[in-house]
Amino acid sequence: MEVHAILQVLWFLLIAVLLMGYFILDGFDLGAGILYPFVAKKESEKAIVRQAVGPVWDGNEVWLLTGGGALFAAFPPAYAMSFSGFYLAIMLVLFGLIFRAIAVEYRGRDPKWKGFWDAVFVVGSFLPALLSGAAIGNVIQGIAMDSVTVGQFTHMEYAGGFFSLLNPFALLCALTGLMAFLTQGAAWLCLKSPVDNLVRQRAKQLRSTFSIGQLVLFALTSAYFFLLVLPSFGDTRIGMPVAYVFAAVFVVGWIVSRLFMANKNDLMSFLSVNITPVALIGITAASLFPNLIPAANNPKGVFTYFIVPGAADTANSLTIWAHSSSELSLTAMTIITCIGLPLVLLYHVIIYRTFRGRIKEEEIGEY
Q: In the chain, what is the straight-line distance between the N-terminal and C-terminal CA atoms, in Å?
């Protein structure tokens, strides 16, 4: 295999790893933000939730920014296609993250508007959690694209509309991802809350409920994928054997997490529920390979596409082989990553070690 081809595969895998990091680290604090009004009723209980995510939420979002930057540098056409096709959805995600950050910082400094900032915190957590899953669902299914020529240059443009992105498979993926975030958030609150506090007791009940819902939605999404999505792509998705392995990892991780929930081991329960988002991103990456964004024909219009996925359009699909940066660019990026990624990991080790353990009663109210 040529050096360029090795680097193309390497960066496909690295982007998948960056997304795994985001879904693990930001998944639990987004989930905790959504659960905020359901597990915290009194002011002291709300302070526990804020303090559980306060020291770590901003560092967790670095993985999303890094993943987007890596996609831009390694596979520019895929970056342009995804960010233009999902423009409104991406802006909603960004506004959600921005206003969520503002709510976390302003809530304690603006007590007259604390109800408003609480609502912003919840909505700002909900939008990224829901829409990120919908985006992944659309990419797995393939999106309608047209080849457009401007002068001597030809590029791909999104041929659908915003509502065609809200198709049944994408919505199933959105709900599956949302349920994973909620399970992670509940598990994190169980781990960080004082043992006898009502926040932990409510989160413990929700953790079990969301875990079951996650398995049900995963089964429904998988059935839709195998019955309606995969047949239209034939044998073009060569990574499917690996996807089956990650599906098995999902099931094993779910069983292990249930066992730790039953044994009341909050630390191992939290660690094991994070196996499922790793498996979900692994399934996504493996089922796409070697595509970055599969193209789907849409001959019957957007409303038909809303119900039934379009047939595969392999000629216009964006692949790692045809739509990557040069060998020199990928080599430089690899060297930079070898230097920068350990530093990011070291930062996370320090921050999580510094704020390890349960929140103590005397510490409540600092965030």
A: 53
